[in-house]
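Recap from last week: sequence in, structure out.
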Amino acid sequence: QVQLVESGGGRVQPGGSLRLSCVASGGTFSRYTMKWFRQAPGKEREFVAAIPWIESNTRYADSVKGRFTISRDNAKNTAYLQMNSLKPEDTAAYYCNAIGGGIDSWGQGTQVTVSS
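Predicted structure tokens:
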């Protein structure tokens, strides 16, 4: 299995920025599509962004397009989510997901709170 550990969450004012990291251990990181999801209290988990091993084929939820950027560093076994122009509705627990080659692993999540 692949173990994923997220970090970088916190509290930020509207319009601010945060950068989330997801470090993977075990497996072959470069083979996996890395995704970010989020879950707000009382809501279902929703897709945020994805980056396959072909890094140019990134995908985003409409709600974050133009504000969030997903990237990866295969040498560091790390995926990132740069979040700019944050809004209160971005408040959620953010989870990374590694999928591919029979692997479907999740991290424990990191909390992002956008509030003035």
